[in-house]
Amino acid sequence: VVDALDHRVPDLFERLVGELSLERMHDARGRLARGVGHDVQLGSDLTNLYVEVADAAPKALIVVTGYPLLFKPPADTDPNAEIIAGINLATARLNCVIERAVATQPTEVNIRYVDVVAAFAEHGIGSTVPFIHNLPDPEAFHPNAAGYRVYADAIKAELPAGWLDKQNQLV
């Protein structure tokens, strides 16, 4: 498992969010925009990574997922609405870079992109039933058990018919 955020994108949220003051939110939004703004470099890094994986395991089915939007869309009256919207926008931009890197792979690379945004809709941080841990949890901004089930179901839905049965026979 490789996380795109490990490739030239700062530790986004742990470093940026901390105490939320208006000044800090504007600073965090700017850093998010600059961090994810290296779209070309990140896209190139991911494209190269996927080629390396395919070269190392030429018969593998490579499944690449995007990220869920971390936060429930905020109410206009939410004092953190701007930073929440900025983080969700940065996540959407990151997903576009990842999806584009998958789409540009040569046809002989058996790779699929799985979008999980819809599967996590209504379950971001701040929702009644979140699928993502929030601060101060050490697992903040990562899925909880329900979120990992949603990821697994989204991946399973994108697998070719009979693929899981075939894999179980190989084990």
Molecular structure report:
It is built from 7 helices and 2 strands. The chain is mostly helical. The protein is globular and about 50 Å long. Mean pLDDT is 79; it is low at 5-22.
Order of helices and strands: HHHEHEHHH
Instruction: Catalogue the unreliable spans.
Output: 5-22
Beta strand count: 2
Strand adjacency order, main sheet: 1-2
Structural class by helix and strand composition: mainly alpha
Looking at this protein, list some descriptive labels.
7 helices; two-stranded parallel ribbon; 51% helix; globular; 171 residues; mainly alpha
Give the helices and strands, then pairings:
Elements: H1 12-16, H2 22-36, H3 39-56, E1 62-65, H4 81-103, E2 111-114, H5 117-120, H6 145-158, H7 163-170
Parallel strand pairs: 1-2
Helix pairs in contact: 2-4, 3-4
